[in-house]
Amino acid sequence: MTARIITARPVTDVPPVVEEQLEPGERAELKARIKQLMQAQDAILLAHYYTSGDLQDLAVETGGCVSDSLEMARFGHAAAAKTLIVAGVRFMGETAKILNPEKRVLMPDLHAECSLDLSCPADDFAEFCDQHPDRTVVVYANTSAAVKARADWMVTSSIAVPVVRHLHERGEKILWAPDRYLGDYVQRTTGADMVLWQGSCVVHERFKAEGIRELKREHPEAAVLVHPESPAEVIALADVVGSTTQLINAVRDLPSPTLIVATDNGIFHKMHEAAPEKLLLEAPTGGRGATCISCAHCPWMAMNGLRNLLAVLETGANEIHVDPAVGVQAVRSINRMLDFAVRQKLAIRGNSAD
Ligand code: SF4
């Protein structure tokens, strides 16, 4: 019998980017009420770099963290708080729950998805893995709990290359999912034998190499910073290719007074804090007209706001649940990466978007 051809699920239903618009005075009122309820409920806020400046500031003001998904989950694990509020997208809430099964995990909006996660349904992925039984399964953090449970390793963008190089040196062949651009970058960097799931990030895949070249002509002094979920021709223009945290560090450490940044523009909040004197320019996407879907900002990240954060604290809605059996399987692939990082003395902060 011929094997069914398994491909990434097309993600066509991308919502528009709708930023929360607050009335004058509303911000202060919302933040004051949220702080009261967080204290009463022994909650901390874990905000991703791509969420709004309001949420990032609130996380810092209340003793939470602003980071990538894995560090958010690890911070939540180390904290004594009984409730973790994850401002990000669904797989981040699931990762927090997997690493903290005893804690209550809430999210401002359960419709906050990720195109990489959506492209990789667990059933199809399991069938794909079954078709390649000789390959070690390595998945990116931007996947569901069920997909992580099927994997041998979970990796973040900051550790993907060392892990795959290590496996390649041991003679292992790799099945990689879900981001084809990051997978292609890792394959070219390590020379490993890799089969790639064909998912993509709706934000990063739209950065345009020609637009960056034009911007470089206007700002020849600028350094180009690129997240590896971007297409190969965009990565080829980069002075620094790196995860979210690595790109923030590059803004601080590079001598260039101007930076062209190819990742979600939510990260500019922390980049401005890291180097307030520097000029940060968004790498061009498809344009701000009808052809622009994401405009360098994730529509699902934009679903997080102060109003829906207050609502979940008032109602207890939007709790994240992960089947405990799935969680036990998924945590193995995460712990394999964490143990590897300890052995190699590698930092794993600075995942993708994530
Ligand atoms: S920006 Fe991050 S969360 Fe949004 S679609 Fe891309 S990878 Fe997923």
Walk me through the structure.
There is one protein chain. This protein has 3 domains: 108 residues, 3-Layer(aba) Sandwich (Rossmann fold); 120 residues, NadA-like (Rossmann fold, 3-Layer(aba) Sandwich); 94 residues, 3-Layer(aba) Sandwich (Rossmann fold). It has a 4-stranded parallel beta sheet, with helices on both faces. The model has no long low-confidence stretch (mean pLDDT 94). The longest helix is centred in the last third of the chain and has 21 residues. The chain is of the alpha/beta class and 354 residues long. Strand 3, helix 4 and strand 4 form a beta-alpha-beta unit. The relative contact order is 0.18. Bound molecules: iron/sulfur cluster (SF4). Iron/sulfur cluster binds next to helix 5. Iron/sulfur cluster (SF4) binds next to helix 5.
